[in-house]
Amino acid sequence: MLARQRQEEIAELVRQHGSIRVGALTERFGVSHMTIRRDLESLARRGHLDKVHGGAVTPEHGSTAEPAFREKRSREVAAKEAIAAEAARLVAPGCAVALTAGTTTWTLARYLLDVPDITVVTNSVRAAHTLHTHRRQKQTVVLTGGVRTPSDALVGPVTAAALASLHVDVLFMGVHGMDARQGFSTPNLEEAETDRAMCRSARRVVVLADHTKWDTTGLATIAPLETADLLITDSGIDGHGREVLERGVGELTVVEPARPPRPAAPVPPTDAPIEGVRT
User: Fold this and answer.
1) CA distances in angstroms from 155 to 131, 136, 149, 166, listed in the order given
2) Rg (CA), the chain
3) What is the per-residue pLDDT across 175-208, written as a single tens digit (0 to 9) for each?
């Protein structure tokens, strides 16, 4: 494959997934780390991506940029579904749970619709709306007040005050990034403070993060890796990331996203010749 073709594919992968690691690219294209780094440098100079430690991200995803909910919702859908399904297994009737804002926690909210007699505390406008509108069991939904962010989180002093007096059995926390040194992070300073308040209110902290969050750092650290009693991610996480997380968090669970069904073979028209038969 020519370098230009490879770089075009790399740029498309970053646009689709928001970020990508050097290790994943070397495996995909069968070239050296040095070759991939040169490709990333070339693409960065042309404005197609931002080169970061260990990989690349889309240009708008610097440490302070915060993608909108609609934009994030379409990324890594299969991974988020698998992570949410695994997380839902931890919720039993009678539990009090908290959900931070984010597309993975919103996906979890949909899996909780059939769990009866639970109380859900959340600063996610989307998750609260889903639980209130579509629930099929008796549930209590507590939506904190606050100022709304681009990711549809409610943050600020009003949110922090509401959380200070609450105590839940388990918090499910979504994150923008996770890193060996910076821990779990987000682009929004106030959202980081809100997430820390949620961590303080919970007996158990469960982080939900697909593999693209590894080696990504937002502006503000929420908490170090050891804050997570359990981290649920997907099998796209690379070997180094898995090793670091296994050492850093209390427990690591890796789930396998469902593969999309293979398209059926097209049915030839009835008047088409049958292969191998002369007409």
Assistant:
1) 20, 28, 7, 16
2) 21
3) 988 989 889 998 888 999 999 999 999 999 999 9
> How far is Cα 245 from Cα 12, in angstroms, rounded to an integer?
28
Task: Please tell me which residue, 218 or 122, carries the higher pLDDT value.
Answer: 122
At residue 128, what are phi and psi to the nearest 5 degrees?
A: -65, -40
Is 140 strand, coil or helix? strand
Q: Which two tokens stand for residue 241?
A: 């990331």
Q: From CA 103, how far away is CA 106, in angstroms rounded?
A: 5
Give the C-alpha separation, 106 to 81, whole Å: 10
What's the pTM? 0.72
Written in H, E and C, the secondary structure of 169-213 is EEEEEECCEEECCCEEEECCHHHHHHHHHHHHHEEEEEEECCHHH
Q: CA 128: distance to chain centroid?
A: 19
pLDDT value for 155: 93
